Amino acid sequence: MLYTSELCWIKSSFSGDGGNNCVEVAAAEGGRVSLRDSTRPSRIIPTTRIAFHALVQGVKSEGFAPVQD
Questions:
Q1: Strand, coil or helix: 2
Q2: How far apart are CA 44 and CA 24, in angstroms?
Q3: Residue 7 in contact with residue 1, Cβ under 8 Å?
Q4: What pLDDT score was predicted for residue 5?
Q5: CA–CA gap between residue 39 and residue 56 (Å, rounded)
Q6: What is the pLDDT of residues 16-42, one digit of tens each?
Q7: Phi and psi of 64, rounded to 5°?
Q8: C-beta atoms surrounding 10 within 10 Å
């Protein structure tokens, strides 16, 4: 098991410097990808490269409906 301190987390340059309100991503063992919310860094979501690529493509193409509050 990898701990958060063992991963090199990165965030988008679009996140700005205003605080912790972004999704961070890190390369993990075995060609996997880990995601986390910067406001809850201890909660890590492991996924595959293929699933992460599909997520990124969906976001870029605006393929997701907005979340209703």
A1: coil
A2: 10
A3: no
A4: 61
A5: 20
A6: 666 667 889 999 989 899 999 888 888
A7: -115, 140
A8: 10
Burial 42-66 (b: 16+ CB within 10 A, else e): eebeebeeeebeebeeeeeeeeeee
Tokens encoding 42: 């201890």
Q: Return the amino acid letter for 12.
A: S
Q: Domain boundaries in the chain?
A: 4-60
At 19 the pLDDT is 62
Q: What kind and span of H or E run contains 59?
A: helix 49-60
What pLDDT does residue 46 have?
Answer: 96
pTM reported for the whole predicted model: 0.73
Q: Over pLDDT 90: what percentage of the chain? A: 41
Tokens (6 digits) for 49:
């490269």
